[in-house]
Amino acid sequence: MPEGSASLNQLAVGDRVVYPNQGVCRVTAIDTKEVAGQKLIFVTMRREEDNALLMVPQQKVVAIGVRRVASPDDVKNLFAFLRSDGDKADLDWKQRARTNQERMTQGGILGLAEVVKDLQVLSELRPLPTKERELYDNARHLLVSEVATALGTAEVNAEDAIDLVLFPPGRERPKRTAAEFAKGDEDDLGLDGDLLGLDGDLDLPSDEEPQSESDEESSSEEEGEESSEEKGDEESSAPKKRGRPPKAKPAEAEGAEPAAPKKRGRPPKPKPEAPPEGAEPAAPKKRGRPPKPKPPEVEGAAPAAPKKRGRPPKAKPADSED
C-alpha cells in the first residue's frame, strides 16, 4: 500500500501530495459533480511544476497511487539506501521493465530510489537503451523534486545531495563484468551456443561422391562426345565476335575510278524546260478556288437586290375587324 494512503480519505484543500509519474501537486478543490447521472466526488490537483490541472475521483485516489509528500525521516532512510551496496540489477529486460513500472506507481519515494539506483548500476557496464534512459531521467527528476519539497530547499541543492551519495568521492562502486552480463543475457534468452549454429559441424556435401550406374553410363557417352568435339574446339578457340558480319567490299578494277559515294534522300525534282525564244513565258498558276461565274445580265432589267443573310422576319398577325 502506498505511503500515507490511510490518511488520503481526509484530504483538504491546500494539502501537498505526490501523483505517480507526475510529481508534487497541491489540492485546490474537492467538489461533487454529476457524471452520466451519477454524483461523484472529484479531487482537483494542480501540479506545482507547470500548474497543470489533474482531476481524480476520490474513490480511485488510493488505487492510482496518490500519496502524501515524504517526511524528513523518509529522506534520511532514502540516503541510507542509496549509500548501501544494493543487489545486482536484473539483466532480464522484460522483468526489469515490469518491476520498475510497479516501483514508479506503487513504491513511494523508496521505489523511485530503487529505479534510479538499479539503472545507474546498469549504466556503469553499458549505455542504457533509449526507453530505459528516459525512465531513468524521469525517475531522477521526480526523486529530486520530492526530496527538495520534503526538506524545504531548492531542487539544485537536493540534486547535489543525491549525486554526492550516488557518486561518493574516492570510492568506486563494484561493477559487473562484461562476461557475467553476456552470460546472463544468453541464459535469459535461452540460446545455447552460437545463434546460427556455426560452431558445430555443418553437413556439407563432399567434393568426391560415388557415382551411380546411370551416372557412369552418361559419363562414358560424354567422354566419346568430348573426344569428337576436341578438334572442333581447337579450331574455334578464337573468341567469337558478336553482331552482324561486315559487308564484303566490291573488288576494284585496276585503273578504274573509285565509285562515287551514294547520296541519301529523295532525288531533286526535274526543272521545267525553258520556253523557245520569242515565246511568252507561261503565266504562274494561281492557288485557291476559282471565282464563281456571275449570272448574265438582261438588257433593261433592274439589277438583282442583294441577298439578305439571316432569318426572315416573323409575319405580323392580321388585325381582326371589330
Quickly describe the structure.
With 322 residues, this protein is α+β, with helices and mostly antiparallel strands.
Can you characterise this structure?
Strand 2 and strand 3 (38-47) form a beta hairpin. The protein starts with 15 loop residues before the first strand and ends in an 87-residue tail after the last helix. 36% of the residues lie in helices and 11% in strands. Strands 4-3-2-1-5 form a five-stranded antiparallel sheet. Helix 4 (108-123) crosses helix 5 (130-151) and helix 5 crosses helix 6. It contains eight helices and five strands. It is an alpha+beta fold.
Assembly form of the protein: single chain
Shape verdict: elongated
Unreliably modeled segments: 1-6, 183-202
**Radius of gyration from the CA trace?**
53 Å
Characteristic terms for this protein:
322 residues; alpha+beta; 5-stranded antiparallel beta sheet; 8 helices; disordered N terminus
How are the elements arranged and paired?
Layout: E1 16-19, E2 23-35, E3 38-47, E4 53-57, H1 61-64, E5 67-68, H2 72-83, H3 93-106, H4 108-123, H5 130-151, H6 155-166, H7 178-189, H8 213-235
Helix pairs in contact: 2-4, 3-4, 4-5, 5-6
